[in-house]
Specification:
The chain has helices at 30-43, 69-81, 90-112, 132-143, 145-148, 163-166, 176-181, 186-206; strands at 13-19, 48-55, 59-66, 125-128. With 256 residues, it is α+β, with helices and mostly antiparallel strands. The chain is globular.
């Protein structure tokens, strides 16, 4: 029996993620990553505020908040008037935006590499995020996903995440202001990311690397090196205030 998918609703915060079918590559070269992000800007940014994202070789993660019902009703009413889309229920229209993203990318990818059939696992996965602590954990987990999988040793080293964009002055559709507001200040945001990178790297030294890094990475220069982290050894805000030790991330292991 097929798994019933959680509907995406206005004002909801969701963790959206999926992988290539049978673990196949979604991104083979730099142009693939860039095209996927262009499609995100086209299909998802009009209906959602994106707080964090990462594109890995065979999977991706996004953390986002669907815009308000009032905004979406006005947006789709205008589109219907212009003949861009036909009338349908709001919930159905929200889910259709994501289908349009994945279908458009799959079509372009299959054409480029002369392949046929499905590219993504059937039905993208989604989890409703219901509290601020979980939002913070997901921002950290998503940005450190490449470190978690052994592609690099620190969050600043992997280019296909929103982390460096959030710390730069570059104009982008990622909602950096809101994402940063889930942390007390910029220094805490950087410090927590640094600590989780260290946590994953330390764990990896004790276990074999089952995810060899891809060979086509284009490392991002470290424009924002971690500040003096003295004082971050006992970061508050996770695990009931006991300090940051990575334990709060056990439930964030999504197989990707």
């Amino acid at each position: 029996m097929a798994e019933k998918k959680l509907p995406l609703q206005a004002d909801g915060i969701y963790h959206i993620y999926n992988r290539g079918i049978n673990g196949c590559a979604l991104f083979r070269e730099e142009s693939n990553y860039e095209h996927f992000l262009r499609l995100v800007a086209k299909h998802i940014v009009p209906i959602a505020r994106i707080y964090a994202w990462v594109l890995m070789g065979n999977h991706f993660h996004m953390l986002l908040r669907i815009k308000s019902a009032a905004y979406l009703q006005a947006f789709y009413s205008e589109q219907v008037k212009e003949g861009v889309c036909r009338p349908m229920a709001l919930e159905q229209r929200i889910n259709r935006q994501f289908s349009n993203l994945f279908n458009a990318y799959s079509k372009a990818f299959n054409k480029k590499y002369q392949r046929t059939g499905s590219l993504f696992e059937h039905g993208f996965r989604r989890k409703l995020v219901e509290n601020d602590a979980y939002v913070r954990q997901l921002i950290l987990y998503i940005h450190n996903n490449a470190v978690h999988h052994g592609f690099c040793n620190h969050v600043v080293e992997y280019p296909w995440t929103s982390y460096m964009l959030m710390l730069s002055e570059k104009d982008h559709w990622t909602d950096a202001k809101t994402a940063l507001s889930y942390f007390n200040n910029r220094e805490e945001f950087i410090g927590f990311h640094h600590q989780l990178s260290l946590h994953y790297t330390s764990k990896r030294r004790k276990t074999p690397n089952l995810h060899p890094p891809p060979t086509n990475l284009h490392p991002t220069p470290n424009l924002h090196p971690p500040p003096n982290l003295q004082g971050f050894q006992n970061l508050e805000g996770f695990n009931g205030g006991e300090g940051f030790n990575g334990e709060g991330f056990k439930d964030l292991m999504f197989d990707e």
